[in-house]
Design goal:
This protein has 5 helices and 9 strands; from the N terminus they run βαβαβββαβββαβα. With 192 residues, it is an alpha+beta fold. It has a single domain, classed as Hypothetical Protein Pfu-838710-001. It has an 8-stranded antiparallel barrel with strand order 1-5-4-3-2-6-7-8, surrounded by 4 helices.
Length: 192
């Protein structure tokens, strides 16, 4: 049906980012690209996603470099299910590429969905084997590192989560600075 996104996230300093990237590269990691992302989150007309721990967003992504700005942006519609793990941000993720952000949003609004919040960030993508490593500079929140992998079988979630946690430790990331909250949840929590 879908893919489980197994993810851990850490609040970090610039020095911690540089240390983690150096260690990642020494392990054979590679930088993939830098992008700008704008995520527009929507609320369901009949249930509160904050209570059901779900999310629906449209992501608009552009390469950061000027020479690539003429590339077609990547636009995705993504549903994220409730977290299924107490130690990570693991959840079902269903995503589809779309070619028109405005029309897609118009459909959602016509169905009764409401815009909740926009999250903007600069993201640097790295990869080490099957693991995605991202450095995020999130507007209004600060600096984060995310480690992520995907799994189709729910029975393999614990194995993959443990792989991410072991890598996080090897990269010098502070487990006390890990969070299971999404950027949307972190931004909303600042308001209260």
């Amino acid at each position: 049906m879908g893919i489980f996104e197994v993810e851990t996230k850490f609040g970090v300093t610039e020095a911690q980012v540089q240390k983690a990237i150096k260690r990642l590269m020494n392990k054979g990691g590679t930088k993939i690209q830098s992008v700008t992302q704008e995520d527009i989150y929507y609320g369901h007309p009949m249930r509160a996603f904050a209570e059901t721990d779900e999310a629906l967003r449209i992501r608009y992504q552009l390469p950061e470099t000027e020479e690539k700005r003429n590339d077609t942006p990547v636009i995705e519609l993504t549903y994220k299910g409730p977290k299924v793990d107490e130690k990570s941000k693991t959840r079902l993720e269903l995503s589809v590429n779309i070619d028109n952000r405005e029309r897609s949003e118009a459909i959602l609004l016509a169905l009764g969905f409401k815009r909740v919040r926009t999250v903007r960030k600069e993201r640097e993508y790295y990869r080490l084997g099957e693991i995605h490593f991202s450095v995020d500079r999130v507007e209004g929140l600060g600096l984060f590192i995310e480690l992520e992998t995907e799994v189709r079988q729910e029975s393999r979630i614990e194995e993959k989560r443990n792989l991410l946690l072991e890598l996080a430790e090897n990269l010098g990331l502070d487990m006390d600075k890990s969070t299971r909250l999404s950027y949307l949840e972190l931004l909303i929590s600042q308001e209260y």
